[in-house]
Amino acid sequence: MTSIELGRPAKIRRSARSTLTPVSGLGLGIAMLWFSLLVLIPLTAVMVTAVDGGWDTFWAAVTNAQTAAAIRLTVFTAVGVTLVNIVMGPIIAWVLVRDRFPGKAVLEILIDIPFALPTIVAGLVLLSLYGSDSPIGIDIVNQRPAVFVAFLFVTLPFIVRMVQPVLEELDRDVEEAAASLGASRFTTFRRVILPSLTPAIAAGAALSFARGVSEYGSLVLLSGNLPNKTEVTSVRILSSIENDQRASAAAVAAVLLVISLVVIVVLDIIQRRVARRG
Amino acid sequence: MARSTFGRKGPVAYLLRLLVIAYLFFLVAWPVSLVVTNTFDEGFVSISDLFADPDVVTALRLTLIAAVSAVVINTVFGVGISLLLVRYEFPGKRALSALIDLPLSVSPIVVGLALVLVYGGREGWLGPTLERVGIQVIFSTPGIVMATAFVALPLVIREVVPVLTEVGIEQEQAAESLGANAWQRFVRITLPSVKWAIVYGVVLSLARSLGEFGAVKVVSGNVLGETRTATLVVEEKYLNFDQQGAYATAFLLAMVSVACIVVVSLIRPKSHD
């Protein structure tokens, strides 16, 4: 490849800073073609279909009472769950990294289960403890707490897995120095540990929020999908698809897509900032 | 170092430990173990009943075919894109690397809708044209494979990119100076150094692919014995009051994904630490 590169230095000015060779350029072309066919064109189709009927149609679909209720429930629950994760995630990561006790390896596996478990199975799993046959007498099926618990389950790993590696790399000497200078454990935590964990927590929170907003599978059996009560946005989109109302399905889907895009941008900004600092 | 923390461990540390154990017990451990006990309420009958049902066997086979195809596609694509992102500069690279993560945060229902809007046989952008040349995507296996590939797309890339960045290019340059061609360098040097990252990504992708539900539900049409996958069987059985069947199918799927996690956690310490 080098011979080709060296053979045509003039080509470099073709683009600002492309280092592609003919072979890698072809590879990029094929990869982009597949990525476009699989992801970009279909997602564009959602956006185009959403605005196809004009702004009024879009707005009517999104502000339809039942749809608005679904969007509100989804977003509020996702925010609430993310707040719980912001507290619990770092605590779990802390215990996994700093504490030592028999059976800790089991906790490590428990953290990954929600990520690996098929979402419909996740719903069934929660149903077995929090459903009508609950051995502890808690029945939340078809009620709003069901949505909360389902989101809590599927978003469990995000902040934990983001914070854990950062906590492992954290220099203990700095903490000990702070302690030896008379800082209390709380002060050490707030002034020394927390600032270095913040980007990881923020990135995990963004993922956790996005996952909550887009959740579908785990709710199917658990929440009952009652209109205006436990129906989330994804379910609302699905019923529009099943009734062949593509325009309104696409309109609501576009709202979710915009939320996903915002999350992606936020993540990208956080990652760049961390990379620049580190 | 560990000793000093042990010495200083106050009541707060024990409290946090207790809190974490209780939280994970009620949220994950207990519910998961209940699915296992519910499945085996009547012994192994529920599992063997499952394999006696030809529609379930068809569904399991379809799930396996779709998942394996999607994983193969995503692995080839993922390794290729990772190499391009790490080793080359090109305009639009930052946008591409951010967009790659998009499938992780898009709702599965939106994924299904997006594919139907483009590949749907009646009104899709490309669907009617494809159907004229005899390719049916939606309500058929290609659509299920695409939906599965879409949702698991970033997993291999997210594993391979950091390792590839860390390995650097010195060894490849050395091999190049010794006369190795591009293919030899890729097979002998690049591939072995990212081998475990690829394995890890493949295992995660497989777990994700076997379990895809929402996107597949939209694109498959959910036809019994034809385009119904294993996760759709769980839903259908539960809604038809066949709880034993639902739990048994869920147990099978959960077994595979838990096996995947265990494999991953066995691999992880070796490659990352």
UniProtKB/TrEMBL annotation, chain A:
Record-linked SUPFAM superfamilies: MetI-like (SSF161098)
Chain ranges passing through the membrane: 20-50, 70-97, 109-130, 145-163, 192-213, 249-270
UniProt-recorded name of the protein: Sulfate transport system permease protein CysT
The family this protein is said to belong to: Belongs to the binding-protein-dependent transport system permease family. CysTW subfamily.
Cellular component GO terms, alphabetical: plasma membrane
Summary of the function given for this chain in its UniProt record: Part of the ABC transporter complex (TC 3.A.1.6.1) involved in sulfate/thiosulfate import. Part of the ABC transporter complex CysAWTP (TC 3.A.1.6.1) involved in sulfate/thiosulfate import. Probably responsible for the translocation of the substrate across the membrane.
Alphabetized Pfam families for the sequence: BPD_transp_1
Oligomeric and partner information: The complex is composed of two ATP-binding proteins (CysA), two transmembrane proteins (CysT and CysW) and a solute-binding protein (CysP).
Protein origin, superkingdom: Bacteria
Automatic annotation (TrEMBL), chain B:
InterPro entries: MetI-like (IPR000515), MetI-like_sf (IPR035906), Sulph_transpt2 (IPR005667)
Compartments in which it is found: Membrane
Annotated keywords: Membrane, Sulfate transport, Transmembrane, Transmembrane helix, Transport
Membrane topology: Multi-pass membrane protein
Gene3D superfamilies xref list: MetI-like (1.10.3720.10)
A GO molecular-function descriptor: ABC-type sulfate transporter activity
Chief place of localization: membrane
Keyword Glycosyltransferase: no
Matching CDD domains: TM_PBP2
GO CC list: plasma membrane
Function: Part of the ABC transporter complex CysAWTP (TC 3.A.1.6.1) involved in sulfate/thiosulfate import. Probably responsible for the translocation of the substrate across the membrane.
Subunit structure: The complex is composed of two ATP-binding proteins (CysA), two transmembrane proteins (CysT and CysW) and a solute-binding protein (CysP).
Designated name of the protein: Sulfate transport system permease protein
